[in-house]
Predict the 3D structure of the following.
Amino acid sequence: MEQLKTDLSKYNNDWYKRGGSTFKQVCWYIVNYVFVNSAYPNSAFKVFLLRLFGAKIGKNVTIKPSVHIKFPWNLRIGNNVWIGEKVWIDNLGLVVLHDNSCVSQGAMLLCGNHHYKKVAFDLIVGNITVEEGAWVGAKCVVCPGVKIGSHSVLTVSSVAVSRLEPWGIYQGNPAVKIKERVIKG
């Protein structure tokens, strides 16, 4: 029996709606490139621009230089959230960062993937939630549909492919729980 093969000529993601008009999307790409995904250091101005394009953002949010956010209208950020340098938020779906959460340098939050078992390599989209007090470490990858539980930690260069339970410390690829998080005064 002959195996089916990937045929990218059959790829079609017309079902996926990016949100906003083409004009809005083009304006965002320019603003993102010039101010957000650049060395420009002013967090308050970045927050202002993100809100202008539909992001819902709380108070005291820090957004470091060279952060890439694909669609601000698919972004919800709580209070006291930190987003480190070179974070990539590929939010084809909704990304929610709850209060006091941290996404460290070079982390990637990826709401999109492809169905490798399908001939057309169909697009798959899933939302990502980082709950209160959780920390996504430097160079981590969070995959579509993943929820990072309250106060859990995803350690450096780990890959979250499924839900991380609250208060756990997770490590590896795929990330597995290695111990409980204990916060001391």
About this structure: The domain at 20-166 is CATH 2.160.10.10 (UDP N-Acetylglucosamine Acyltransferase; domain 1). The first strand starts at residue 56 and ends at 57.
